[in-house]
Write a structure and sequence with these properties.
This protein is mainly alpha-helical. The protein has 15 helices and 2 strands. It has a two-stranded antiparallel ribbon with strand order 1-2. It is globular. The chain starts with a helix and ends with a helix.
């Protein structure tokens, strides 16, 4: 895949996440951070130790559950209607081909982002009801990682005894995710250790889980530019859309990610070029 193709793909993924954030009210930084932690923004990622797949690494049961609840809202009524809960509480699909088609939707970044945001919104309400405080992005990630019941148990125990061994409370999760629950020397991490590690990985998304109402984030500004691979704009200095796309790719990727994203807000010639393309696309 070429640099431009990679940049365009990354831009589409980030745009999909932004749309999911705007529709549900879940913070963009949290959803972006979650996707980075889960898959490195790889929409077709798969896990070796579980059934997790896609941008947000949904396991089969979690995906079927959120699709059952919210699929119809996104024109996926055929999928939602095909899913049912059996007597033991497991989500099932009677037709194997239909089940595989539903599970394959995890690899669609638009659908995966929407379902991740809806799942986070549901978990946010439940966690805030259980804890009596505003949920953070890290709280939401614990619900994604351990399930809602597991997150409630994790947070309640961490509040009363943060030094408790996380692996001791969640042995099955620890077996599947040894790097999360144990240090490199084999010692078990505490509940507080696990929580803080996830908070560090989520970065800006670890805080307030609801949308902050801030102006357009720099990363979204760049993502919109990255999505303009079909543009035909040529600037006064003869820079083409491809030139600007290559620059934006380098600014957000090879030259340092988040730190470089902030530079998009400074009045440099590169910024002007990017802004010109965006205005041209919007008819300005």
């Amino acid at each position: 895949m070429t640099v431009n193709a990679i940049a365009s793909n990354a831009g589409r993924i980030q745009s999909a996440i932004q749309r999911a954030a705007a529709r549900t009210g879940i913070d963009f930084d949290y959803l972006l951070g979650q996707a980075k932690v889960e898959s490195g923004l790889n929409a077709t990622a798969s896990a070796a130790t579980s059934s997790a797949r896609g941008l947000y690494q949904f396991v089969e049961q979690s995906w079927l559950s959120v699709m059952k609840q919210h699929g119809g809202e996104y024109g996926l009524g055929w999928a939602a209607d095909a899913i049912s809960r059996n007597a033991s509480g497991r989500m099932t699909v009677s037709d194997s081909a239909t089940k595989q088609a539903i599970l394959a939707l995890r690899n669609n970044p638009e659908i995966a982002s929407a379902m991740a945001a809806e799942h986070a919104s549901d978990n946010k309400d439940a966690l805030e009801s259980a804890t009596g405080r505003q949920a953070t992005g890290t709280d939401l990630y614990m619900a994604h990682f351990l399930g809602l019941g597991g997150a409630r148990r994790f947070l309640a125990n961490m509040q009363s005894n943060p030094g408790t061994s996380a692996a001791g409370l969640f042995p099955a999760a620890a077996r599947a995710n040894r790097g999360v629950f144990y240090n490199s020397d084999g010692s078990a991490r505490s509940l507080s250790d696990v929580y803080q590690r996830f908070a560090a990985k989520l970065g800006d998304g670890a805080g307030n889980a609801g949308n902050t109402g801030n102006s357009l984030p720099a990363v979204q500004f760049a993502a919109q530019a990255l999505d303009m691979d079909g543009a035909t704009v040529v600037t006064g200095a003869n820079q083409s859309a491809t030139d600007a796309l290559s620059w934006a790719s380098a600014a957000l990727g090879a030259r340092g990610g988040q730190a470089q994203a902030a530079s998009l807000l400074r009045p440099t010639p590169d910024t002007a070029r990017l802004a010109y393309m965006m205005l041209a696309r919007m008819g300005g």
